[in-house]
Amino acid sequence: MTEPTLTPTSRILSGMRPTGSLHLGHMKGVLDNWLNLQNQHQCFFFAADWHALTTDYANPGIVKETIWDMLIDWLAVGIDPEKSTLFIQSEVPEHAELHLLFSFMTPLAWLERVPTYKDQIAQLREKDLGTYGFLGYPLLQAADILIYRADAVPVGEDQVPHVELTREVARRFNHLYRTPSQPLFAEPAALLMPTSKMPGLDGRKMSKSYGNTISLSESWKETEKKVKQMPTDPARVRREDPGSPEKCPVWDFHKIYSTEDERCELTAGCTSASIGCIDCKKVLLSHLEDELQPIRTRRLDIASRPDDVRDIVKSGNERARLEASRTMDKVRKSLKMGYRV
């Protein structure tokens, strides 16, 4: 896949489901990428509350409980409302209108062949996902993207088929309702982002379902306790036993946070048993403190001003809706709608 050619005026669209507290995996996998993009392009970042209901429709309260915490996390990490448009999906009802109109013209087979459809049904067997909302959520994603006429969408490789579906929907709409010389929708590109390599505290992928996360909102004492309780190389039963860093979950964190010189010293100390596991963890904790404590300080300040947060989101909602309404005016004209009554 060729990299898209983007300029400072290029539009980027990305969203995140509000399903719980954000953790280091979210920061390394999504938010760090957003921080880079907002300094280079025109970005629209949204809280995808409707998307959250595709799998949690039976428990909508989780969206209300977590959406503001998620938005505060974005601001604390450094997502800047002066540079990016931050908004809530359901506050821009034009998304739903465009999704509805797209559903009339999109072949059912296009949705059934999206790879994540069957994969997620298999993974989430405890939930009843035999709904149109779940089948059609990639089409809602297409509406999310096209309504802002986005040039690119930052994704991991598993989401590339969703962007390709969006491109197909754009082509089909242009073919049915526009002339070749005046297409309404450009075909957005998939902007492949570096995938998160953030391990969990137990060596598996960091995930709330595994209970192995470091939350952006937890206290430093809680983080310190979690790291000190991390499992290490099982061969190091006693302090004097030599170990192997590659067999230790803590080492995966050092690959991300520690310098090359530090890793060399830690390797020598571990394999010779000249340092203990607590010594190794202290180095990691120093790096985590440098990264997380400024974010948590900002988070406490932002959370203490809820009216300011709501004003930021309200302004973002209004900017997003203005852009979305411009697109919908053109869509309705293309469909010969807009009756004068």
Low-confidence stretches are none
Strand element count:
5
Q: Estimate nothing, just give the exact number of structural domains.
A: 2
Helix/strand-derived category reads mainly alpha
Given the structure, what is the number of helices? 14
Tertiary shape: elongated
At the fourth CATH level, what is the homologous superfamily of the largest domain? HUPs
**Could you tell me the strand content as a percent range?**
5-15%
* Mean pLDDT metric: 94
CATH top level class name of the largest domain: Alpha Beta
> In what order do the strands lie side by side in the largest sheet?
1-2-3
The helix content is 40-55%
Q: Sketch the topology as an H/E string, one letter per element.
A: EHEHHEHHHHHEHEHHHHH
Computed over alpha carbons, the radius of gyration is 23 Å
Gap between N and C termini: 49 Å
Q: From the 3D coordinates, which CATH architecture of the largest domain would you assign? A: 3-Layer(aba) Sandwich
- Please describe the biggest sheet, giving its number of strands, its sense, and whether it closes into a barrel: 3 strands, parallel
Query: CATH topology of the largest domain, which one?
Result: Rossmann fold
